[in-house]
## 1
Amino acid sequence: MSTKTLQKVSEYEKSNVNSRLRCFKRHISSQKQSFAEELSHSLSHESKFISPKFFYDKTGSELFEKICDLPEYYLTKTEIEILNHLKTELPHFLHDDFRLVELGSGSSTKTRHILDVLHETQSKTEYFPIDISDILESSSQELLSLYPRLHITGIIDTYENGLEFLKEYDSKNNLIVFLGSSFGNFSPKDGLKFLKKINSIMKDSDLFLIGLDLIKEKSILEKAYDDSEGITRQFNLNMLSRINTELDGNFDLANFAHVARYNENEKRIEMYLQSLTNQTVQIPKAKLSITLQKDELIHTENSYKFSLNDIEDMMADTSFEIKRIWFDSNKHYAMVLASKI
Ligand SMILES: C[S@@+](CC[C@H](N)C(=O)[O-])C[C@H]1O[C@@H](n2cnc3c(N)ncnc32)[C@H](O)[C@@H]1O
């Protein structure tokens, strides 16, 4: 670790779970404070919103895993199909020793396809997951038993803060992966900014692999975000339970409906919590009292969908050279491998 990285470490609680796994987690008080501060801004707007990064407390992360198994949620299945194929082609791009860095690693289940490739040829494989959710620690522990030569340094924090950790970390090549269409949560403007940020911390020899969901029929898209078992509904409503638990809020979940719709002009799925009645809600720890009218919407997520042209333009605009694009058999999803120009 460089001196700069060591300075950053003081902002984190470090746990050395064992000799092959260490985790850095931002101090809990500063996490709670940023949740309260962001809400006090985003819920006092005329158009109320809550950032999707707050979906992922313990229950939220568990619900997301259930979503991945739903028949309607084609995203996980298509990405796995591509990753299976990619396993045979990826080694052609990895001419040297690479560390695997993952943004939003979650359960690290899909990651295993890439770890299989690295672990087969390396005497020591390094994995550097970054995730805002505590799920990172248990997922990492599971990996240790599957990969005996694996060493993990996990950062439990936002993508941006995790990437700061990586800046000037050492001279080893990084393969940075961003799976699960999580990039789709960024607005086009913030997405470009984020890709530039990734590009700026990459060395010339580093590689970036990103999974992006493609534009497709509205009915397929809307079912994926509003499943028949109501798991996505629970996932969306859990945001309010989390506010109640962590910030002493008094949301009555029965007063809200889950709404998911595809906005064709904006090329995005929009997810909302809709107030079913006129109501006032208190969130003491965010110093908030919010009034909601019947049918008023709280915007909780955008999930942007892309055309091939969008992807090519976006990568070129952020100084990436596309090395290869893979698609699933239905062309529902794309995975892009790129390097710095
Ligand atoms: C859509 S899930 C994808 C999980 C996994 N990569 C997959 O493909 O199944 C998004 C993951 O990113 C994490 N996450 C969401 N927003 C984040 C942020 N702003 N910073 C860091 N992690 C974030 C969540 O905790 C979650 O594990």
Note: The chain has a mean pLDDT of 95.
## 2
Amino acid sequence: MQGVARQFFILGIVLGIVGMMLGISMAMSHDHLEMPVHAHTMVVGWLMSAVFGFFYHMFPVARQNKLASIHFWLHAVGIVVLVVSLYFVIAGNEAMEPITAISSLMVFAGLLLFAWIAIPIINKA
Ligand code: HEM
Ligand code: HEM
């Protein structure tokens, strides 16, 4: 894998490891309070990053688009800040909530940018 495809896949693997460690700790402690952090680390952090990685791997024209790197950073910074800040919000630090909100909008902006990059390519493929 090259370029942004590789970056997305590595991000996904790292977040998958972190998310599973949280899942195991939840299961061991019987304390599922942080389930939304585990769930979003796994599905948005691991699964979505892996899907983006496969897409950019399959379509070199997509990863050559300069916007692809902006998509990666929106998704990477967005999901990491989202899950870390959400952890503290759930633990009782409600002052962190605006940070969670902004980071979730970054993840959303990344998906909109992906739509812009990917849909013309999908239509031609
Ligand atoms: C080491 C492996 C894993 C462990 C020990 C684990 C543990 C857990 C636990 C304890 C819960 C809370 C269940 C509840 O309170 O109802 C949970 C929920 C969840 N997990 Fe995991 N998990 C693991 C792997 C995964 C993986 C690989 C994914 C996805 C790729 C995933 C996605 C989710 C989701 C989406 C939820 C929320 C489910 C719901 O809404 O009811 N987990 N997990
Ligand atoms: C980044 C924007 C997103 C926001 C702001 C968001 C917000 C939420 C909220 C408020 C809940 C309910 C949590 C609860 O009742 O405790 C939830 C649950 C869930 N979301 Fe998201 N979500 C986002 C993205 C996604 C995406 C992209 C996926 C799938 C790829 C996803 C998968 C899930 C799942 C599986 C649950 C059920 C597990 C749980 O309750 O934590 N979310 N989300």
Note: The chain has one domain: 3-119.
